Amino acid sequence: MKKRPSLSIVIPFLNEEAVLPLLRERLGNTAGFPEDWSLILVSDGSTDGSVEYVESWMREQPRVKLLELSRNFGHQAAVTAGLAFADGEYVAVMDADLQDSPDTLIEMYEIGKSGFDVVYAVREAREGSLFRRLCYSVFYRIYGRLAETPVHLDSGDFCLMSRKATDCLNSLPETVRFVRGLRSWIGLKTTSVAVRRPDRAAGESKYGFWKLMRLAAAGLTSFSTRPLRLAMALGFGLCLSAIGLGLFYLIKALIFDLHTAAPGFATLVVLLLFLNGTVMLLLGILGEYLAQIFLEVKRRPTYVVDRFVDLETESEDRSEG
């Protein structure tokens, strides 16, 4: 049987033609990788020249492998696909845009070999727009309050996992994947590394605001039922408030003004708008959970692989995952 590489690095990408040459140069200039490390580049439906560049890179360095998905399934699906094909004793996940440093990855690898199953990066500082940094900060703090198995504040998908942790993660049946949450849920021996996260080395982010919102919703609904409990508590509180307000107007009408109704038309309109908005919000929360169930019960694969090319073994496979 083929010997496992000591380290497999999974890097998903989407239309990163501008940054892949910089990534190649950076990986080539980083000392400390084991001699038999491998690199799995996962194309999440790229339509520019990224795949062609990776193919030329593979011909010069057979340790590089290409996993091409049939279309754009999303970042978490691409990470999941890469983990399924990674066969190293340790498996790392990092972004292609060099916001995740290869030097930090070497540090993680050394820490992992000392007895940890999961080593992940925690961003102690971020570059980029103030709005995006604020969104990340708010999400992690809300998630930390609501999730039954919270992830570390300001951690991301950049991590190193042992073979044991990788196999455990791959065995989990979820169709909708939130990798950093699943990584925390398995509960193996874990530690973190503090990093400063720079801005992208080149190109533009493919993870816009609405994609981030969908990822946040998937993370919260996958690992917490507390929003449903909060919705029930809010509904109960509003019912009590409505009963109290009704009693107040009834007593006012009976004691202070028996013959005229309470004027409070504006109050009534405001309350109706507020209560209707609250109902829609609660239905939206319930809808997110129903959507999660809808996607899970169909049991469709998380991704579809168009091809996997490994020139070290001269193989090209096409399959689903």
Overview of this structure, please?
With 321 residues, the protein is of the alpha/beta class. The chain folds into two domains: 238 residues, Spore Coat Polysaccharide Biosynthesis Protein SpsA, Chain A (Alpha-Beta Complex), CATH 3.90.550.10; 72 residues. The protein is built from ten helices and nine strands. A nine-stranded mixed beta sheet has the order 7-5-6-4-1-2-3-8-9, with helices on both faces. Helix 5 runs parallel beside helix 8 and helix 9 packs antiparallel against helix 10. The longest helix has 33 residues. The chain is elongated and about 90 Å long. The protein starts with 6 loop residues before the first strand and ends with a strand.
Summarize the structure.
Helix 1 (20-28) links the parallel strand 1 and strand 2. By secondary structure, the chain is an alpha/beta fold. The chain has helices spanning 20-28, 50-60, 75-85, 102-113, 130-146, 163-171, 179-185, 209-223, 226-256, 265-297, and strands spanning 7-13, 38-43, 64-69, 90-93, 118-126, 155-162, 190-197, 304-310, 315-320.
Give me the secondary-structure topology.
Layout: E1 7-13, H1 20-28, E2 38-43, H2 50-60, E3 64-69, H3 75-85, E4 90-93, H4 102-113, E5 118-126, H5 130-146, E6 155-162, H6 163-171, H7 179-185, E7 190-197, H8 209-223, H9 226-256, H10 265-297, E8 304-310, E9 315-320
Parallel strand pairs: 1-2, 1-4, 2-3, 5-7
Antiparallel strand pairs: 3-8, 4-6, 5-6, 8-9
Helix pairs in contact: 5-8, 9-10
